[in-house]
Design brief:
By secondary structure, this protein is mainly alpha-helical. The chain is built from two helices and no strands.
Length: 105
């Protein structure tokens, strides 16, 4: 009877240490799986953002291509943005003012 008790005791010790090792391995695998899921999520998000950026750039290229096609070859493409004040066009009133100033002085 004492021999069978020692066998049971030794068996239960190895079984409990085996259970602890399996739990540790299970926890380690869960952590690794969670880390990989986070990494996959981050990579998918990066791909989506880059796809959106690519689509936006492609739309800009299309718009530029159509605006260049609509512009004649010898004329520069106008963006609608003007640097500085508009050019002055001489008119009869500006000429009259300068001659009046000359005659009155």
């Amino acid at each position: 009877i004492s021999g069978s008790n020692s066998v049971k005791c030794l068996t239960s010790r190895f079984d409990s240490s085996k259970d602890v090792a399996e739990e540790d391995e299970s926890d380690s695998l869960k952590e690794m799986c969670t880390a990989q899921q986070k990494q996959l999520y981050n990579l998918k998000t990066q791909v989506e953002l880059r796809d959106q950026r690519i689509n936006a750039l492609e739309e800009q290229v299309k718009m530029l291509a159509t605006s260049r096609q609509a512009t004649p070859v010898n004329t520069p493409a106008s963006s609608g943005f003007v640097l500085g004040p508009p050019p002055r066009q001489p008119g009869p009133s500006s000429h009259n003012i300068s001659t009046q100033e000359k005659t009155t002085s």
